[in-house]
From TrEMBL:
GO terms for biological process: trehalose catabolic process. It comes from Coffea arabica. This is Trehalase. The keyword Hydrolase applies. Keywords: Glycosidase, Hydrolase. One of its GO terms (molecular function) is alpha,alpha-trehalase activity. SUPFAM superfamilies: Six-hairpin glycosidases (SSF48208). It holds the Pfam family Trehalase. It comes from the Eukaryota. Belongs to the glycosyl hydrolase 37 family. It catalyses: alpha,alpha-trehalose + H2O = alpha-D-glucose + beta-D-glucose. Its EC number is 3.2.1.28. It is an enzyme of class 3 (hydrolase).
């Protein structure tokens, strides 16, 4: 048996090499001279892929060449699972007659897919939420308009549609699946996003709390903590091909909000160790950046930096096509790192990460210290201090209170622009190849308008200073970001989905909640205005399409968004959650009309 196991391991190792060649990984290692010219970030860590993922990427490539680009979704082919073990499946695949252009006959490939692979939707099965009721007690008490209330109940009912649990087959034979086993039921975003996603889960939970579904909300947190226990951080999503990166860290905020609703101290105690581990992930190694300010003081902030420098498996064919515009092997390697890092940011993709707004190959995510990421980590520090105080961990509370003060100081020294009344992403100098701290330069602040410039409102950075807060609010109002149907992501229309004219539920919610937390009459009025615009456009699109959408066109009320590398998606977890959270916060009077104005 030991000899057989060794032979299988050797076979699998050989298969990895063959598949890597087939999907052009070999080009990345084309020459030692070329690698020597790579940028310093190319020496960053890389999380190894699995034999299964490598094989499915090969199937993906062959399928693209066979079926063509029309309606082709590369993610589908890495979401499928195997009916038989990997060796048997590979042997069958290798018997297909492959043409010189890499294609096979459509009938042969369809026969193979049907005989050897399970459907992409079969890893997760429907799970009735144990805490769902059609109309919860005290549900949105201030929504008085009957049309709006009826729609809110429909949105509430969508939690049932999006509820899943990992199938028994995944639990019994995880080696046949790219889906990772999770202990509790999940709420998926919807459509092609068949698995749990990290930062989506925060707004899903905010909606679940409005729906009084506390058990489901806690289960989502339990799942995310299980990923930290296994990998040391929350993955981008619960797939084997997402182990190379995380997403905006909002786990502490999920736990904080659940505690505020339930008062469950045991829940905090069991969660705190995972939060400490996640905090270390974001504040050490490749994610940590030291910058010397104008007074010579060194500050530590964080950045996105994926542990990956080849095409993303779920978008492998797309990434290779993007990189084909580059001739240099090392430039391609760097681009793959930047593509994955932009995916870690959640903003995939946006001119925010690009040196040239018209050229995706100029992505430079790892060279940017982002306003929103550091706002999220500041919130993590504040949350951990609060939660540790609740559980009597006074030394932890003191440590994180101190850390939060240091980050506030760092953000205001490096990212804040007093003249403009905004926080700006800071671009790191490419010429700093040493391990010394970067030197702050005012010209390295990216002063273009992005919704992310105002995310620090959410963490009360200047809430005690009325003059500064009024300037921030005025800066937001004159930024051009506030449009008829909500807040635009940027002011640049490039066809990328995290650019104009798209608006996204998370950005609306973060800025609106930040304004509410400040609490001035002007801030509250502005927050309500934004929320009502957003609710109206969601309502009208739902009435017209019968679905909640991933993103919306904020230039016109009643239009869903587009752009990016996949078709517009419906479902949709975080959009549902933000609508319910807004209706809980602001209500809807009986005499206020619904629909676009």
């Amino acid at each position: 048996m030991a000899y057989a196991k060794t032979a299988v391991n050797r076979q699998e190792a050989l298969l990895i090499i063959v598949f890597a060649f087939l999907i052009s990984f070999s080009s990345i290692m084309a020459s030692t001279d070329a690698l020597d010219s790579c940028k310093p970030t190319d020496s960053g860590p890389v999380v190894k892929t699995t034999p299964l993922v490598s094989f499915l990427e090969t199937v993906q490539q062959t399928s693209l060449k066979t079926f063509g680009h029309k309606n082709f979704d590369p993610k589908l082919y890495v979401d499928v699972s195997l009916k038989y073990n990997l060796n048997t499946t590979v042997e069958a695949f290798n018997k297909l007659s492959i043409a010189d252009n890499g294609s096979v006959s459509v009938s042969d490939l369809n026969d193979f897919l049907a005989q050897y692979l399970e459907g992409a939707d079969e890893d997760l099965v429907y799970a009735e939420p144990v805490d769902f009721v059609a109309e919860p007690r005290d549900f949105l008490p201030n929504v008085e308009n009957p049309e709006m209330r009826a729609w809110a109940l429909e949105v509430h009912s969508l939690w049932k549609n999006l509820s899943r649990k990992v199938s028994d087959t995944v639990l019994e034979k995880p080696e046949l699946h790219t889906l990772l086993p999770l202990p509790k039921p999940v709420i998926i975003p919807g459509s092609r996003f068949r698995e749990v996603y990290y930062w989506d889960s925060y707004w899903v939970i905010r909606g679940l709390l409005a729906s009084k579904m506390y058990v489901t909300a806690k289960g989502i947190v339990t799942n995310l903590i299980s990923l930290i226990d296994e990998f040391g951080y929350v993955l981008n999503g619960a797939r084997a091909y997402y182990t190379n990166r995380s997403q905006p860290p909002l786990l502490s905020s999920m736990i904080f909000n659940i505690y505020n609703q339930t008062g469950d101290e045991e829940f905090i105690k069991s969660s705190l160790p995972a939060l400490l581990k996640e905090y270390e992930f974001w504040n050490s190694g490749i994610h940590k950046v030291s910058i010397k300010d104008a007074q010579g003081e060194i500050h530590n902030l964080s950045r996105y930096y994926a542990m990956w420098n080849t095409p993303r498996p779920e978008s492998s064919s797309i990434d290779q096509e993007t990189a084909s515009r580059l001739s240099n092997v090392c430039e391609k390697t760097q681009l793959y790192r930047e593509l994955a890092s932009a995916a870690e940011s959640g903003w995939d993709f946006s001119t925010r990460w690009m040196r040239n707004a018209s050229d995706l190959t100029t992505l430079s995510t790892t060279y940017i210290v982002p306003v929103d990421l550091n706002s999220f980590i500041l919130k993590m520090e504040l949350d951990i201090a609060f939660l540790a105080n609740v559980t009597g961990e006074s030394s932890i509370a003191a440590r994180f209170t101190e850390a939060s003060e240091a980050r506030k100081k760092a953000m205001n020294a490096i990212l804040w622009n007093a003249e403009k009344g905004q926080w700006f992403d800071y671009w790191l100098a490419e010429t700093n190849t040493s391990k010394d701290a970067y030197t702050w330069e005012a010209s390295n602040q990216n002063q273009k308008s992005f919704a992310s410039n105002f995310i620090p409102l959410w963490v009360n950075l200047f809430h005690s200073d009325a003059m500064i807060m009024e300037k921030v609010i005025q800066s937001f109002q004159t930024s051009g970001l506030l449009r008829p149907a909500g807040i635009a992501t940027s002011l640049t229309n490039t066809g990328q989905q995290w650019d104009f004219p798209n608006g996204w539920a998370p950005l609306q919610h973060l800025i609106v909640e930040g304004l509410v937390r400040y609490g001035s009459e002007q801030a509250n009025s502005l927050a309500k205005d934004i929320a009502l615009r957003w609710i109206r456009t969601n309502y009208v699109v739902y009435q017209e399409t019968g679905a909640m959408h991933e993103k919306y066109d904020v230039e016109k009320c009643g239009e869903f968004g587009g752009g990016g590398e996949y078709k517009p998606q419906t479902g949709f977890g975080w959009s549902n959650g933000v609508v319910l959270a807004f209706l809980e916060e602001f209500g809807w009077p009986a005499d206020v009309k619904v629909g676009c104005q």
